[in-house]
UniProtKB/TrEMBL annotation:
It comes from the Eukaryota. This is DNA binding protein. Transmembrane segments: none annotated. It is found in: Nucleus. Residues 224-371 form the DNA mismatch repair protein S5 domain. The chain holds residues 8 to 390 of 756 of the full protein. It comes from Neolentinus lepideus HHB14362 ss-1.
Length: 383
């Protein structure tokens, strides 16, 4: 038997390479939305309004009231690796923003029609720009490539249309519009809880009523009540713990915190790359869900961690009847120097130093709070 000779190696077309790369980051409408929400939060928005058509496949529009984008930056906005968030390698270890790769808008422009309308405070009008394959395109052939002036409020509106129009396999891997819409609502719900002071609204295009709406300036508990219902909210136990529990001592919660942890670190902690703190709002012994609801944020990023989920479920298994599951919103802050967020393009997977030890400490704190009964709503964990 004769083996066939090797086939020649060919260079892929540039546009194909870009589409493949974009698919690594933008899997579905909800992953595009996650990137766009993070951009709005990075821009210090207090209002994020999302409009969706056909599960986000036809239209995904996100309007914020943040800083806006300077007109002079619009020409390179959708190029790969253009970002306002880091400039040197060492910045990566002190990351305070969600974004840093400058890849989201570029990726979206390779797999969808992208339009940006934006206005900074000092602009006298808004500017509109359309992008394709990483570059600014004229709105109509024959016009100049410059962004066009238009009416608009301070902030940015990003319009994503016909997602995956040029990648049919990706398109066919999507579920029904209603399932994709459910994922969009899920992402928004979680970000709304974690950013309770920010107003989030999500609705279908053409509909007068919204499917998700939170007022600005809410507390974490208010948003949980609004989005997950009274049955969860009335059960909530609030736990805070950290690498330095003596600092938590005496810290009282009036159940009215802003949700953001006030880690007003002293000098010692700032110098300790292993310092961490955690805050959780979670259900008590008499709340029984069918499936675990876990909202896990590490340094403000929504992430997945099957390991943390398993550990939390194990902690609850001693107090919940068989088959019952908890509700847990856990926000973990770790010194950026000990987190490696750069492991995966979607940034969903995060690894950090002393992972096992930290998880164990958090579970201990939760265990202690749970066994204390659910009458007292606030627990401070001390060693
Ligand atoms: P990254 O977030 O990693 O920097 P993106 O592609 O998501 O990359 O965004 C590129 C740049 O566009 C950002 O660094 C930011 O300067 C700007 N930008 C994107 N979205 C917004 C927004 N909603 N408001 C203000 N600026 C934005
Ligand atoms: Mg971004």
């Amino acid at each position: 038997l004769q083996l066939p000779g090797p086939k020649p190696i060919r260079r892929l077309q540039e546009s194909l390479i870009n589409r493949i790369a974009a698919g690594e980051i933008i899997h579905r409408p909800a992953s595009a939305l996650k990137e766009l929400i993070e951009n709005s939060l990075d821009a210090c928005s207090t209002s994020v309004r999302v409009t969706v058509k056909d599960g986000g496949m036809k239209l995904l529009q996100i309007q914020d009231n943040g800083s806006g984008i300077r007109k002079s930056d619009l020409s390179i906005l959708a190029e790969r690796f253009t970002t306002s968030k880091i400039s040197t390698f060492s910045d990566l270890s002190q990351l305070a923003t969600y974004g840093f790769r400058g890849e989201a808008l570029a990726s979206i422009s390779h797999v969808a029609h992208l339009t940006v309308m934006t206005k900074t405070k000092s602009d006298t009008c808004a500017w509109k720009a359309c992008y394709e394959d990483g570059t600014l395109i004229p709105a109509k052939a024959g016009l100049t490539q410059d962004p066009k002036p238009c009416a608009g409020n301070d902030g940015t509106t990003i319009i994503v249309e016909d997602l995956f129009y040029n990648t049919p396999t990706r398109l066919s891997s999507l579920r029904s519009s209603s399932e994709e819409y459910a994922r969009i609502l899920d992402v928004m719900t979680k970000y709304a809880v974690h950013n309770s002071a920010v107003s989030f609204v999500c609705k279908k295009a053409g509909s007068t009523s919204s499917d998700l709406s939170t007022p600005s300036g809410s507390t974490t508990e208010q948003v949980i009540r609004l989005l997950y219902g009274h049955s969860v909210a009335k059960e909530l136990i609030h736990v805070t713990t950290s690498s330095n529990p003596s600092k938590d001592e005496g810290r009282q919660s009036d159940g009215n915190d802003e949700g953001a942890m006030d880690v007003d670190e002293d000098q010692d902690e700032q110098d300790d790359p292993e310092a961490w703190s955690a805050e959780a709002y979670m259900s008590g012994a008499s709340y029984h869900a069918k499936k675990t609801v876990l909202l896990l944020f590490i340094n403000n990023r929504l992430v997945d961690s099957p390991r943390i989920k398993r550990s939390l479920e194990a902690t609850y298994s001693s107090i919940l009847p068989k088959g019952a599951s908890p509700y847990i919103y856990l926000s973990l802050r770790i010194d950026p120097r000990s987190v490696d967020v750069n492991v995966h393009p979607t940034k969903r997977e995060v690894h950090f130093l002393n992972e096992e030890k930290i998880i164990e400490r958090i579970c201990d704190a939760i265990q202690e709070a749970l066994s204390g009964g659910s009458r007292s709503r606030v627990f401070e964990y001390q060693t």
